[in-house]
Amino acid sequence: SELSLRVENIRFNCNLTGSNHYQFCRRLTTNSTRHSKKGGSVDDAEIFKFNQTAAQWWDPEGPAKILHRLNPLRIAYIRASIEQHFSVSQLSGLRLLDVGCGGGLVSEPLARLGCNVLGIDAGEVGIKTAESHAVQDKLLENNGGSVTYRSTTTSALIEQVEANALEEFDVVCALEIVEHVNEPEKFIRELTALVRPGGLLVMSTLNRTPLSYGLAVFAAESLLNLVPKGTHEWSRFIQPEELAYVVESQGLESSELVGIALNPLTLRFSLSKNCSMNYFYVAAKPARKVTDS
User: Fold this and answer.
1) Secondary structure (3-state) at 53
2) d(CA 73, CA 70)
3) Rounded to whole angstroms, how far apart are CA atoms 188 and 101?
4) Which of 23, 91, 173, 292 sits most deeply, having the most CB atoms within 10 A of its CB?
């Protein structure tokens, strides 16, 4: 099974130099100039692009076919990370936020495993697709989990948390989304704010390396047609050190960094110690300290 492929944890501390962090922030500021009607991290151009194919989210041979190939590994990895962090064998009752949920490819399977999932996405077409598919999923009826979808943003959810209208989540997932947003540093900080004390942040994205440009952009889009042309902009990819810097600055503790490898012959994904292409990143928010009254 995919769980048997789980590699040894890679523990690390990320201490970027001032110059590197300056370059990182400068690059993020450049990305933040893109237009956004909804404000914050939402990039209108990206929403428009994904809305064009949103009705085909659940077609395994459609525009999202590479995500369908990746999904078994994503679900297995998230499940294993949650079980390890919370020392549980079942996910029942855990509140999970899936940010950038699209058509629900991750939200729905995690709900089948017992999580109470809120999937959010700024793209309204994708949310409608997700809602329509969930209604038809008979496996959701008997496992104790649930899934709800909203066309909203992390900024809006934080406003609800601050107004005591919403509680933070046990687990926040943001998979293949951070490379598509405006103000990625702000977006990452918002993700961490939505994790409850003692909770878990699970992310996956593409590393910014020459290899990722050659394979994830040029080969995947122009040669192999694995994803629609224009899906990715290499300059927006985020390196693990950059991601960890922002997350750790918000008080979370990095717990695992692991690569994702694709076999080009079988189109099968597996975990890898090489993080130069796609990677998973996991961080935990320390629990609140109990003080004597």
Assistant:
1) coil
2) 6
3) 16
4) 173
